[in-house]
Amino acid sequence: MENNFDYKEYNEKKYKTKYWTITRSKYKWFSNYVKLRVFKEWAEDVQNKDAFLDLGGGVGNWAFHFLNKYKKVIVLDISEEALRHIPEKEIIKVAGSATKIPLKNESVDCILLADVFEHILPKDLNKMMSELYRVLRKNGLIIIYTTQYGYGIDLIRKRLFGLMDGRLKLSEKNSGHLNRLKFSEFKRLIRKHNLYLEDYYHYSIIFKQLIEFTKNSIAKIIGKFTRDKSVRQGQIIKDKMKSIKEPNLAFRIIFGTISFMLYFDILLFGKLIQGSSIFLKIRKSSGFGLSDAQDVSLDIRKIK
User: Fold this and answer.
1) Contact between residue 275 and residue 204 where contact means Cβ atoms under 8 Å apart
2) Which residue among 84, 186, 192, 299 is buried most deeply as judged by most CB within 10 Å?
3) 9-57: pLDDT as tens digits
4) Mean pLDDT of 195-203
5) Residue ranges per domain, the chain?
6) Which CATH class is domain 7-205+269-302?
7) Which pLDDT value is given to residue 165?
């Protein structure tokens, strides 16, 4: 799969079959709250808020939340199908690849990669990082949320029971994941490309994974009563929550409680335990050289 993987073909298929769909709600199956909180906090830490790039942004689910924060908001995606479905006219749509970004040098102030990094082939990670550096302005930020080869309880359990293909869960392979780096590999890759890791949060350690297990169990229980396979997988519940804009008090209490529990991973362990996911805040800097280049290239070749 890795050697002949076609990014465009894969992504076009996912959007045409509505595997990934539009949602402008922060209530998406209780999964957006922590991400959005970190993204917004870090994206504010840019002096010049002229251009925001949501790289691999699909139908603009994250870009939408930054329309009132930056003068220009750009969604770049390899899927033309996804770009056609972005409803907001003020979002700039650009067709292109993360490994060959069709934007001018130093043209954006902040770049977001949310659930994108893990969909890049290991052999292409250096190309992508070079492109990120090229289009980012001086003192600009790159914000990444992706999977990590760490010690989240579900990742440990799957390792112990042999439910992995290299570093990837079997379910992740089916979802198009192509890499999973260790924290040390992230740091070397960042340094190699003359970038500076300014902040990070390890995530998906204990509480997030317990919540995910609980949510999926509830969906399965509902599915047994309805005999609806899509409910059993939680999809109908997810779709209903995408449309919630003004929830009632009971829902807000439930949402607030679950969201706070999800945030415990960051509050308690964000700097201590390397989880199954990670937030990376990366600054463009001229103060770091290429001393780790050889080590990084070796590590990248070994990643499965």
Assistant:
1) yes
2) 192
3) 999 998 888 777 888 776 665 678 899 999 999 999 999 999 999 999 9
4) 97
5) 7-205+269-302
6) alpha beta
7) 93
